[in-house]
Specification:
Length: 351
């Protein structure tokens, strides 16, 4: 046990049941651009989406009566810890909690966890697996009176993400724990400057994506043709760097064009779908500056960049008419954003 990281604080006890419990939360994320190629070392820019959050409650052992998650179909419940008693299914959140218990010398414990995934639709590229893992680890930490620094929390969530994605870059684990937009590359996250007031409209195709399958398919595509792979990865870096410059300088139109260019790369990588293409066209037709899939693709969500005000509402309505089952408005605001300690302050140069 690492004494400078771990501090006894005592567990919380509910007044109604007398059962000791811990609680935790984490939020969703949207990748502005850089998904997939980020797994191969290029950068990505991602935004936290605090309006879509997950909450977790953890109990010791297997209590007979514990509160159920809300009526949300996105509720999830699992048992972690001692392999003789815990559930056999190894989900990302379960792996993250098991690893936390192991690091704290509590591998023999059995913990019951209930997750309320609120409005985050699962398997839609909005980081539900990473957010669930983050909320679950925070709940277990509170249950056992452990405090976790930001780096350790990232590592634990990332253990779960490796299971959920097959090979995870870490951008999801970083973004669901971040308090502001991040630049992410090769395991390191840092704040990215925003000089833009705009809106990201997220639209759900209604089709679940399979991140592990999509990541493996992109790897096969890149492995098949190393010359094309080099060109695609270089182009991805160029586009993410250009997007960061436009984001900082507040240039909304060029940023939108860059998002469309990145969508072309993702199409070349084989992760767009007819439903995604339809939503991208609908968003641009309704006045969005640009649009692309966000997350792993092969289903999931589309992200559109619009001006603030009526433009966002018009794009959102057009996306719904074109088949989106849900849309969300995510404001992008200029200025300083607070960041957790694992992100390094920006010093004017990108890696
Ligand atoms: C999934 O949200 C993002 C991917 O790039 C996978 C990853 O980075 O781990 C597709």
């Amino acid at each position: 046990m690492n004494s400078h990281r771990v501090r006894e604080r005592g567990t919380r006890t509910t007044a109604r049941t007398g059962i000791a419990r811990g609680t935790g939360r984490a939020h969703s994320k949207a990748i502005l651009l850089g998904e997939h190629t980020v797994v191969h070392g290029t950068p990505a820019i991602a935004f936290p989406v605090p309006a879509l959050s997950v909450s977790a409650i953890a109990w010791r052992g297997r209590p007979v009566t514990i509160p159920q998650p809300t009526d949300s179909p996105a509720g999830l419940r699992f048992t972690a810890g001692n392999p003789l008693t815990a559930d056999t299914e190894m989900s990302g959140p379960r792996v993250a909690v098991d690893e936390a218990l192991r690091r704290w010398g509590l591998a023999e414990e059995v913990v019951e966890i209930v997750l309320d995934c609120g409005d985050i639709p699962p398997a839609r590229g909005l980081g539900s697996s990473a957010a669930c893992a983050g909320a679950a680890v925070r709940a277990v930490a509170e249950l056992y009176g452990r405090s976790i620094d930001a780096e350790t929390l990232y590592e634990l969530v990332q253990c779960g993400e490796q299971v959920a994605h097959g090979r995870a870059s870490g951008v999801d684990a970083s973004a669901v724990l971040a308090c502001g937009p991040i630049w992410f590359q090769q395991g390191a996250a840092r704040p990215t400057r925003v000089g833009l007031d705009a809106v990201l409209v997220l639209a759900d195709t209604g089709m679940p994506g399979a991140t592990q399958h999509a990541v493996a398919a992109v790897r096969r595509t890149l492995d098949r043709n190393p010359v094309d792979a080099g060109r695609i990865l270089d182009r991805a870096t160029e586009l993410v760097e250009s997007a960061a410059d436009d984001l900082e300088a507040g240039r909304v139109q060029p940023l939108g064009a860059t998002l469309l260019d990145f969508q072309d790369l993702l199409t070349e990588l084989g992760v767009s779908t007819p439903e995604i293409d339809t939503l991208v066209s609908a968003a641009v037709g309704a006045g969005a500056h640009g649009a692309k899939l966000t997350g792993a693709g092969l289903g999931g969500c589309v992200l559109a960049l619009t001006d603030i005000g009526g433009a966002a509402a018009e794009v959102s309505a057009a996306l719904r008419r074109a088949g989106a089952v849900q849309t969300w408005i995510v404001p992008v605001t200029s200025g300083q954003h607070p960041f957790p300690s694992r992100t390094r302050p920006e010093r004017g140069t990108r890696q």
